[in-house]
Amino acid sequence: MMSIFDALIQLVVAFFATVSFAVLFQVPKHQYAWSGITGSLGWLCYLLVNQGYGSVVIASFAATLLLTAISRFFAVWRKTPITIFLICGIFPLVPGAGIYYTAYYFIMGDNAMAALKGEETLKIAVAITLGIVLILSLPQKIFRLGLHKDRF
Amino acid sequence: MENENSPLEVAVLAGRILLSNGAEIFRVQETMERIAASYHMETFHVYAISNGIFACGTENGVPHTAEIRHVPLAPVHLGRVAAVNQISREIAEGKHTVPEAFALLHQIEQIPFTADWIQILASGIGSACFCYLFGGSLVDCAVAFFSGLMVYIFVLLAGKKRLSKIMTNILASAVAAFCGLFLYQLGLGHNMDRIIIGSIIPLVPGVPLTTSIRDFFNGDYISGTIRLIDTLLIAACIAIGVGAVLKIAGMLGIAVGVPV
């Protein structure tokens, strides 16, 4: 089981990982911290679910649910498009490792492993898709939480 | 060519900035419709796809003003998307006349990208952080940091030389794999796979994937498909670039390690 200390380090590293993508995608400076928080909480959720449940696909799904909900809340609260938090926050979950291992085994001639990794990569992509779509389907007023009574 | 007094053109300009900087179709169309309604256009219709906008409307009783814009797929600039969002709110609140809105939107178009060295540094830090998150050791992270720098230096150079997107992604991921492999062979780092995974992360198609999902969600299937193809192509390019380097290394008799 992960210690509190490990979890804190993972949170901090995921925060900086996400912020560096916020920089690459030209997010306004005053939103850096909030997109970082979105990414690090999503990553922590991924780690915990993956440890408890032992499935990267389920973990990606759960983490996407959480971070999309956080993004929607931030979008309302910070009065800015949800894209800003969602795109940066989703990055730790995008299956970069899956792409690598699929290519690796394919090149090494281990087609069975390549197919396995390719399938897992696709499943993670579908899990992320489902997570985003589910949370986007919820009515907007849930995320307002008493903030901004006006139309936005 | 632009008519500074035309609400239609303000709407089209706002839509074009949104679309070319990474907004999803729904936001583009909704923003344009909101601007048109705020300026009391009698009718307004817009159809947008990932790389084009078609709009027409009636202004002051003059019908048939049509606008067609080709919007090339360009680098993402979310700062501009946020800025247009802000302006469109203000237009809806009646704060800006049409010429004012024009001037503001032109300013947004000029918001610069952050300096190259900051982007390169961000790529390095991002690579190092991801290397750590995927279980790399501290030395691995240092190597990934270096590879991440090299990858983005290459990406920016390729952009300036107008290299095609496909070749950029193949070669940039080859650079990532080469740096990782080379430094690993020099005895730096413990896990070559984690180093390479960290350093290809700046290339991974997270933005088109997310945008594609959101376009599909809103029923914009054509645009969703365009972005999805973009996503799959980039992923394939990364696989080809990394794979080619590993294959060549293998043929030269260099052990490329066994991933855990």
Order of helices and strands of chain B: HHEEEHHHHHHHH
Q: Could you tell me the mean pLDDT of chain A?
A: 88
For the sheet with most strands of chain A, the description reads: none
Provide the residue-averaged pLDDT of chain B: 88
Share of helical residues of chain B: 55-70%
Share of helix among residues of chain A?
over 70%
The domain count of chain B comes to 2
Assembly state here?
Answer: heterodimer
Number of continuous helical runs of chain B: 10
List keywords for this structure.
heterodimer, A: 152 residues, mainly alpha, B: 260 residues, 2 domains, 65% helix, 9% strand
Task: Describe this entry's structure for a reader.
The complex is a heterodimer of chains A (152) and B (260). By secondary structure, chain A is an all-alpha fold. Chain A has helices at 4-24, 32-53, 56-77, 83-90, 96-107, 111-137, 141-144. Chain A has one domain (4-141). Chain A is built from seven helices and no strands. In chain A, helix 2 (32-53) packs across helix 4 (83-90) and helix 5 (96-107) packs antiparallel against helix 6 (111-137). The longest helix of chain A is centred in the C-terminal third of the chain and has 27 residues, at 111-137. Chain A is globular. Chain A starts with a helix and ends in an 8-residue tail after the last helix. The model of chain A has no long low-confidence stretch (mean pLDDT 88). With 260 residues, chain B is mainly α. Chain B is built from ten helices and three strands. Chain B is elongated and about 75 Å long. The model of chain B has no long low-confidence stretch (mean pLDDT 88). Chains A and B meet through helix 1, helix 4, helix 5 and helix 6 of A and helix 3, helix 5, helix 8, helix 9 and helix 10 of B.
